[in-house]
Amino acid sequence: MTNLKAVEGLDTLTRSLAQRTPEQLAALLTRHAEPLARRPAPTRLRGLASALWSYETLHHLVLHLDHPRLQVLAATARISQDRAGREAPAPAAGADYQSLMAHRLSFPQLATEPVPPEDVHAALGATAPGPARTAAESALDSLYEDGLAAPAEDGGIVVPPRTPQLLAAHDLGPFVPHAPQPTPDATASPARPGLPATTLAPTSPYDESRAAVAPLAATVERLLASLATRPAALRKSGGLAIREIKRLAKAAGTTEPHTRLLLDLTLAADLIALTRTPAGVTALPTDAYDDWLTRPPGERLAPVLAAWSALWAVPTHTPFGETPTALVRGHDRHAPALRYALLAALAAVPLGAGTPLPPTAAADEQGALPELLRTAAWHRPLALGGQPMAEDRAAHTLHEAAYLGLTAHGTLTPLGHALLADPHSLGEPLRALLPPPLERAHFQADLTAVVAGRPAAALAELLASSADRESEGHAVTWRFTPASVRRALDTGRTADTLLDDLTAASATGTLPQPLDYLVRDTARTHGRMRVLPAACCIRSEDEALIGELAAHRALRDLGLRAIAPTVLVSGRPPATTLEALRAAGYAPTLESDTGTTTVERLPAHRTKAATPSRDPGAPLTLAKRLLGHAPEDQEDLQSSRA
Question: Cα angle at 490 between 489 and 493, to 5 degrees?
Answer without folding.
Answer: 40
